[in-house]
Design goal:
Length: 192
């Protein structure tokens, strides 16, 4: 702490704007006292001037005091404004983090939608492939049905062929039987 010869805190005094005005007023009053004639009464105008000057100095002192309070109030307002700006900065910082989080959520949702789209696309291709397999299976079943139908006709034809062959064999048997009978008759005629 810096102190003067009279023990007063110089830093506190020199940073106070009222101190310099009070110092100036005291110097003026000392000069007025020096100029005042000794043993004589002051004139009315000099007394009024000193009285008005004293009131003026008091008024200026009050004004400086009020100005000091005003500066303190402005300092408090600026301090509160600083805290308000800090709070707004924190709110904007949190809002920025919130927007970033929402962006990440939307980004993940976009990737999820893309993945779902790919899954649906693959499912669509799978369904198309299954449809082709079923279509080919249907054609295969139709072809097998045709083969079985042709086989049935073939079996019927073979049955007819066998039936005709049976009739042919029966006819041949009859012809052999008739030939044997004729041969026997001929032999009997020859023997008689």
């Amino acid at each position: 702490m810096f102190c003067s010869n009279d023990g007063k805190d110089t830093l506190k005094s020199y940073t106070n704007p009222i101190f310099f005005f009070e110092l100036w007023c005291s110097q003026i009053q000392k000069e007025v006292e020096k100029k005042r004639p000794t043993g004589k009464k002051l004139r009315v105008c000099d007394a009024l001037t000193l009285h008005i000057s004293s009131h003026f100095c008091t008024a200026v002192t009050h004004m400086l005091h009020i100005s000091s309070h005003f500066c303190t109030a402005v300092t408090h307002v600026l301090h509160i404004s600083s805290h308000f700006c800090t709070a707004v900065t924190h709110v904007l910082h949190i809002s920025s983090h919130f927007c970033t989080a929402v962006t990440h959520v939307l980004y993940i949702s976009s990737h999820f939608c893309t993945a779902v789209t790919h899954v649906l696309h693959i499912s669509s291709h799978f369904c198309t492939a299954v449809t082709h397999v079923l279509h080919i299976s249907s054609h295969f079943c139709t072809a097998v049905t045709h083969v079985l139908h042709v086989s049935s006709h073939f079996c019927t034809a073979v049955t007819h062929v066998l039936h005709i062959s049976s009739h042919f064999c029966t006819a041949v048997t009859h012809m052999l039987h008739i030939s044997c009978c004729e041969l026997l008759f001929h032999c009997c005629d020859v023997m008689l």
